[in-house]
Specification:
The structure is a homodimer.
Chain A (H helix, E strand, L loop, with lengths): L2 H9 L17 E2 L12 H16 L3 H6 L2 H9 L10 E3 L3 H18 L4 E4 L5 H14 L3 E2 L6 E7 L11 H10 L3 E5 L18 E4 L14 E4 L43 H10 L8 H19 L5 E3 L9 E5 L3 H10 L2 E2 L1 E3 L3 E5 L7 H15 L2
Parallel strand pairs in A: 1-11, 3-4, 3-5, 5-6, 6-7
Antiparallel strand pairs in A: 2-8, 7-8, 9-10, 10-13, 12-13
GO molecular function, one term (chains A, B): kynureninase activity
Function (chains A, B): Catalyzes the cleavage of L-kynurenine (L-Kyn) and L-3-hydroxykynurenine (L-3OHKyn) into anthranilic acid (AA) and 3-hydroxyanthranilic acid (3-OHAA), respectively.
Family (chains A, B): Belongs to the kynureninase family.
C-alpha cells in the first residue's frame, strides 16, 4: 500500500471530481464526516438567497411560497436514499425528538395488539437508549433486549456508531415482524453511507440524521419515515400545529394530518432545513450504490494500510462494515489528538476507540494513505 | 391624525435610526413582525462566517470552539429581555417541543405534591392546547380551566395571539402560587415586545418564541426558562444526549445536567441558532422599556387613525394591549388580502380578525398612517 497506489486509485475514481464541490481546508484530511459532514460550496449562496431573496424579499409571504412544504419536499429528496416510495419521509426536529415521537407511536400501536414491551437491541447510541427509557417510563413499558411474542416495538440501530458494524437489517426486521412487533430503525450512521431498503423489507418506522453523511450542517434537522400502511395508526405525542390536518383553522381540537405530515410538530427551523436541501443536490450527480462501492474500497484500503500496526480493527469484514473504520488501541484518545495536530481529523469514542469516517464523495485514497502513514509514525515512536 | 403628524413623530423618534439595520423592501409596510420578524441586514454575513469560517474552516472542531455552548450563551442574551438572572434560559427546539418538556416536568413536580390537574387558562394558542392535551393524556391528568387546590400546573399565555390582550401576569402568577401550583407562561407574543419580569414574580417555568419580535428567522429555535429554585426538580421527558451531565461519556444511563442545560435535548440546529444570535445584537443598542414605549405610541396612533372606521378595536386599553392591534370586521380576510396587494402586510386570524403587529424597531408612524389610510380607502368603496 503506497502513496503511488493511492494516487492511482484516485485517478481512476469516477467520484473523484465531486470532491471539489466541498469546502475543506487545503491540507486537511477529514475523516470525521460521520460526525459532522463537510459543507458543500453551494451552501453560503443558498443561505444568502433564503435570507435576502425569500425572508427579506417576501417576508411573511415566503411561508406559503417557499417554506411551508419544505419538510415534506426535502423528505422526498431523502426517500430514494433509504429505499422509500414517496409520501413516507418528513424532515424536522432532532433525531432525539423524532425517536421520542416514533417510540411512543410504536408503543401505542403495540398496545392495540395487547403488547407493552420495548426491545432495545445491541449497543444503541446513548440518546436512543435514554429516549427509550424515558418513553417506556411514560408508557409503563418494560424494556427488554430480546424480541418475543410480548414485544410491542423493536428499536435497532443500523450501523453501530462505535464499531461501525452493520446490523443484519433483513433478519432483524423479519424477526420483529414474525413476532408481531413494530420495528423502528435508527439510520443515523447508514443514511447517505450505504443503500437502505425500507420499503423492500416492509419496515414500519425509521429515523435518521442529516448532518453526518448527508452534510446538512451542524444540527441539521433529522427525518422520520412512517410506512404508508402504518400512517393512519401513527399517533405521536408532539402534536404541534404544523402536524394538524388544517393548521390555519386553529381549531380547538387537534386532528392529525393525513399521511406522513402528521409526524410534523412545531414550526420547522427553515435556515437549517434549506442548507440541507442545498446539500442534497450532490445526490443528483451520483448514486448511493456508487458511493457505497467507493466507500468499501476506501475503508478496505485504509485497513490494508494499518494491518501490521498494533491496533485491533473492529468490523474487519468489509461486507458488514459501514463507511467507517474503528481501531481499538489503549492510547486511542491521545492518538486522535496527535493526528489532529497534523490536521488529520478522526475522533475518539470512549474508552479506547479511534474512529475514522470515510465519506466517499470527498475523501480520497490519498487521504486514507496519509492518515494511515501518520498513525504508523505515531505508533512507531 | 395626518401624514404630517406621522412624519413629525418619526422625526422625533429616538429609535428611528434602528430601522435602517433591517432589510425590508422599499415601499412595503410590514405589520406582520408578530408572526415572522423582518431580518437584520447583518444576518447573511453572519451565516457566511458560520458556514465558511466555522463549519468549513474548523470542521468538527467548530463544535467545542464555537457551537456547543451556544444554546446557553444565546439564552443568556434573551434572559435580560424576560427579567431572568443568568443560568435560567436555554435556546433550542421549537416552542411545541419546549411546551411538551415543561408541561410534563411541571406535572411531575405537581405529582410530587399529590396533584394531577392541568389548568389551561384563557384562549391558549392552538399548539399550547394540543400539547397540553397530549401531555395530560400521557400523565393521566385532568385538564381544567380554573386554578384550585388540586391544580398541579397552570399554563397561561402572556399576550393573546388573536386579540393582543395582555394577561394579568402578576395576579395569575400569584394565584397559581397561592394555590400551591407550578406556573408555566407562554411568552411567544411578549418576548421582545414588552418587559417581562419572570424573576421578580418568582415564575417557575416559561417558554417563548424567537422568530416573532426577536427576528430570529423562520422557525428559529425557541427558549425555555426554568427558575433556579426549580431546576433540580425539572424532570423533562426529551432526554437527549446534549442535556446529559457528561454528554461525551456516552454512559449507559441518563443523568440530567446541572442547571438549565437539562432542558436541552438533541443536537441543536446551529445555523438557525446563530442567525438568532446575530439578530439579538440590536438589543445592545436599545432597551425593551424604550421599545415598549414606542410600541404603545405606535399602536395608539394607529387606533386613533382608525377610530371612525366601522371596525371593532380589540384590546382598546393601551395599558393591556400588546404590540399589535386586532380589528374585527366581517370582511377581515378580504381586507388583509387587498392590503397585501398594496404591499401593506398584516394578517388574518379566523374568523373575522385583521391583525397588525407593530415592531417598534422597524415600524414607523408613517407606516401606521399608510396602513390606516389604505384601510379607510378600502372600507369607503
Amino acid at each position: 500500500m503506497s502513496l503511488q497506489r493511492a494516487r492511482d486509485l484516485d485517478r481512476s475514481d469516477p467520484l473523484g471530481e465531486l470532491r471539489g464541490q466541498y469546502d475543506i481546508p487545503s491540507g486537511t484530511v477529514y475523516l470525521d464526516g460521520n460526525s459532522l459532514g463537510a459543507p458543500l460550496r453551494s451552501i453560503p449562496g443558498r443561505l444568502a438567497e433564503v435570507v435576502s431573496g425569500q425572508w427579506a424579499g417576501r417576508l411573511i409571504r415566503a411561508w406559503p411560497e417557499h417554506w411551508w412544504d419544505a419538510p415534506v419536499r426535502v423528505g422526498e429528496r431523502i426517500a430514494p436514499l433509504v429505499g422509500a416510495a414517496p409520501g413516507q419521509v418528513v424532515v424536522g426536529d432532532s433525531t432525539t425528538v423524532n425517536l421520542f415521537k416514533s417510540i411512543i407511536a410504536g408503543l401505542r400501536i403495540g398496545a392495540g395488539r395487547g403488547r407493552s414491551e420495548l426491545a432495545v437491541l445491541g449497543d444503541a447510541f446513548p440518546t436512543d437508549r435514554y429516549i427509550a427509557v424515558s418513553a417506556a417510563r411514560m408508557m409503563d413499558s418494560p424494556i427488554t433486549t430480546e424480541i418475543t411474542e410480548r414485544t410491542a416495538l423493536v428499536l435497532a440501530g443500523h450501523v453501530d456508531y462505535r464499531t461501525g458494524v452493520i446490523a443484519d437489517f433483513a433478519a432483524i426486521t423479519e424477526q420483529a415482524h414474525d413476532a408481531g412487533a413494530v420495528i423502528l430503525w435508527d439510520l443515523c450512521h447508514s443514511v447517505g453511507a450505504l443503500p437502505v431498503e425500507l420499503d423492500a423489507h416492509a419496515v414500519d418506522l425509521a429515523v435518521g440524521c442529516t448532518y453526518k453523511f448527508l452534510s446538512g450542517g451542524p444540527g441539521a434537522p433529522a427525518f422520520v419515515y412512517v410506512a404508508s400502511a402504518l400512517q393512519a395508526d401513527y399517533d405521536q405525542p408532539l402534536t404541534g400545529w404544523t402536524g394538524h390536518a388544517d393548521p390555519f383553522a386553529m381549531t380547538e381540537d387537534y386532528q392529525a394530518a393525513e399521511g406522513v405530515a402528521r409526524a410534523r410538530a412545531g414550526t420547522p427551523d427553515m435556515l437549517s432545513m434549506l442548507a440541507l436541501d442545498a446539500a442534497l443536490d450532490i445526490w443528483d450527480q451520483t448514486s448511493i450504490v456508487d458511493a457505497r462501492a467507493k466507500a468499501q474500497q476506501l475503508t478496505q484500503f485504509f485497513v490494508d494500510c494499518v494491518e501490521d500496526l498494533p491496533v485491533t480493527v473492529l468490523a474487519p469484514d468489509p461486507a458488514t462494515r459501514g463507511n467507517q473504520v474503528s481501531l481499538r488501541h489503549p492510547d486511542a484518545k491521545d492518538l486522535i489528538a496527535r493526528l489532529a495536530e497534523q490536521d488529520i481529523l478522526g475522533d475518539f469514542r470512549t474508552p479506547d476507540i479511534a474512529r475514522f469516517g470515510f465519506q466517499p464523495l470527498y475523501v480520497s485514497f490519498e487521504d486514507a494513505w496519509r492518515a494511515a502513514s501518520a498513525l504508523r509514525a505515531l505508533l512507531s515512536t
